[in-house]
Amino acid sequence: MEVPFLDLTRQHRRIRDEIGAAVTRTLESGRYVLGEEVAAFEREFAAYCGARHAVGVGSGTDALDLALRAAGVRTGDRVITVPNIAVPTVCAIVAAGAVPVFVDVDPHTLTLDPEKLRAHLAAQPPAFRARAVIPVHLYGHPAALDEIAAICAKHDLALVEDAAQAHGAEYAGQRIGARASVSCWSFYPTKNLGAYGDAGMVLTRDTRAAEQVRLLRNYGEEAKYCNRLPGINSRLDELQAAMLRVKLRHLDEWVAARRRLASLYDRLLADAPVARPVVERGETHGYHLYVIRSPRRDALQRHLRERGVGTGIHYPVPAHCQPAYRHLGYATGDFPCAERACREALSLPLYPELTEDELRHVAAAVNAFRG
Known about the structure:
The protein is an alpha/beta fold. The protein has twelve helices and 14 strands. The chain has two domains: 233 residues, Aspartate Aminotransferase, domain 2 (3-Layer(aba) Sandwich), CATH 3.40.640.10; 117 residues, Aspartate Aminotransferase, domain 1, CATH 3.90.1150. Helix 2 packs parallel to helix 8, helix 3 runs parallel beside helix 4 and helix 3 packs across helix 7.
């Protein structure tokens, strides 16, 4: 049996008619930039997450960049995040003119470790004071938001959540985005809620922050030919918004399917020679990815490939070890938990259209691994 790591065509075939109708409606409207489709999707996604304001932008990276700027981050400011993430998070910090600063992760959840954040802030010299913190809800598992928020409040730090992988995830009984001062979202095609191209969103309960992002995404334009801020072009596309509105109606069903499949993986891999995903009490995983860990990760990946199983590695090189960020002065060994995760993490196929037979084939192949 061949099991692809991801097959987006399966999803599209199920909703093709709905997508086609949305595209036709948008094309016939004659409004293709910042029209009613974007405005409607902003309202609907804010309502879904329980947020007050939503501003559609061009990508998840732009969402972080503009949210940091709206939070007052300026050139040379330091912004804290974790190393075992997709580099676009770091790119957004740099785009905002800030300097990325890394703190290690919890060895179990692989999200920002509040104790390590607290220790970092206690040790930092006043001249190197951070301005903001970006916790990442990695793979769909929420970061420890209550503890991180308390630390940020104590140190007067802006808290900007990277929720790019957290569609449908919950923390303390509320969807990610509901409690956030600011949360940033990606609708890259592979996400739980994915567009047919790039798209992003900023959610916030802060009216001023929403107004700032709304200006910044459109050249800083307050009125036609009146530019109040030095902004950029990062407007959510009308066609993407129209298609995302269709997909949003299916999101709960799709996330429920991900959780059901993840639960089956958990049962079938209970005795496998790998570490399974951890879900902290009070948190509800969105299962953007189902990530196992093995010290023999590369051999396990080869073993699965030979049995027709597609896999992914998220992410093989920690951000502080990337050539683009060597100038920051970090070295291998500085963040042992994040580095170990990057060496050991392997993503198994997980998407709503994955069949149970396919999943059982994947699980059997993992269980047969002896390294």
